[in-house]
Amino acid sequence: MTTALFSNRALIAFIGVVVVFLLGTIFIPGFGSAFSVRAMLILASLLAIAALGQTLVMILGGIDLSIPFVIGFANVVFASLYGSGMPALPAFLIVIACAGAIGAVSGALSAGLSIHPLIVTLGVGTIVQAAVQLWTRGLPTGSAPPFINDFVSLGGTIGPLPFPWLIPFTLALALGCVFVLQRTVYGRRLYALGSNLKAAELALVRPVAMWTTTFALSAAFAALAGILLVGFTGSSSATVGTPYLFQTVSAVVIGGTALIGGRGGFVGTVAGAIVLVELRTVLIGFGLSEALVQSALGLLILLLVAAYGRDQHIRNLI
To answer: Is 161 in a helix, a strand, or coil?
Structure first.
């Protein structure tokens, strides 16, 4: 079933989490330590939050290449607003609202003008990054409020529990996303459009409205990741989201969401994010350079795309 909590591909991703962890524990000293596990879960949580919107967009049958630019936008603007004296909540709401508007423009242009979202989101994202650079003159300032630092800190705890609030927050986000995809009108329409555009239109699903909403959500979650990254890194940077261009797509693909739409879910993406962080840690532990790590992960994605690409689209199975 398309909206099942654990699809076969998501299950494979979770098996991958266990297998890679066992291999890392065997071959990399300290890989299985409490500190290492906590660090990997924090990094995977940040990636999963950034990839949530990418998951929704890819279920719809699109792709969002503006995510790293929106992350950088939110990172810099939130830090600057808070650093200039604005309270954290208004700064947060302004950044999320602006990011949502950016995503909505991308979705509306893609669907309304029938332009591939790869082109639209890359163009919109580049404009956003240029605007941030012009605003800050290449010298972003500001910081995160202490409660965000604690929320994502490697040393953060929840009472006696040895991990920060970010980890249970990501788990709650995953459960909430499962509910939305399985139990709401939005979720049903999302899968319907990704499965068969013509059939969805006959069912009175409005493509432009759905694309606009979904890309707005994608940008909003990217902005949330950008804000959290201010607390994690301790400073702001317009390029902090650059690694997430590859990583969000990779996490979604590893998690089993179909590139052609109609299949997938956020639970698999969470597993994909954990696998990706584990693999990076293992490869770095083996002494590979960053270039070789990227090459190895890129090869993995090619193999997965080749394997998943052999499946028939869901519209051909109905």
So the answer is: strand
